[in-house]
Amino acid sequence: MRTIAALMLAGMLASCTTAPEPVTTRSPAKEAELQQLLAGKIAQRPVACLPLYRPEDMRVIDDSTIAFRDGPARVYVAHMNGACSGLANGTAVLVTHEHGSSAPCRGDIARTVDMSSRMTVGSCVFESIQPFVSPRR
After folding, report:
1. Taking a C-beta distance cutoff of 8 angstroms, is the pair 59, 77 a contact?
2. pTM of this prediction?
3. 8-state DSSP, 53
4. Is residue 111 exposed (0-12), middle (13-18) or buried (19+ Cβ within 10 Å)?
5. Per-residue pLDDT for 2 more than 60?
6. Span 79-93, mean pLDDT?
7. Residues 78 and 50 sit within 8 Å (Cβ to Cβ)
8. How far apart are CA 125 and CA 12, in angstroms?
9. Which pLDDT band, with edges at 50, 70 and 90, does 9 fall under?
10. CA distance 113 to 96
């Protein structure tokens, strides 16, 4: 009887463990693009929200990392909680809905929409937003 109870307890504990997050791999070209965007810039404290941005200033690095250029001197790097399926390979676009501000904030949910079918294929959450700024000369 004790053996059965011990096996049941072990099974319950094993079912509570979570699978590791999938590792997002980034191509060498995208890694080089990120390094080029951040070259000569200094990391600042994370911010709660992105400033207004133009879609053409958004650079997808991988399914979990998006960079937003704010002129030549500042880049914001957003890390997403959960991968935004399809962003890295270019089959999906990021759709955001801002609540209470004019730009995405930490905790906001973004959807990824397949460009050919126009169907939602996933979602992700803005986890952190880190600015990188060129030092003043």
Report:
1. no
2. 0.76
3. -
4. middle
5. no
6. 85
7. yes
8. 29
9. very low
10. 11
> Mean pLDDT throughout 46-65?
88
Lowest mean pLDDT of 43-57, 64-78, 90-104, name the range: 90-104
**Cβ–Cβ contacts within 10 Å for residue 85, how many?**
17
Dist CA 110 CA 112 (whole Å): 7
Q: Per residue, what are the HEC states of 70-128?
A: CCCCEEEEEEEECCCCCCCCCCEEEEECCCCCCCCECCCEEEEEECCCCCEEEEEEEEE
Distances (CA, A) of 68 to 37, 55, 93, 124, 129: 9, 9, 15, 17, 10
Amino acid in position 93: V
- Count the neighbouring beta carbons within 10 Å of the beta carbon of residue 15: 7
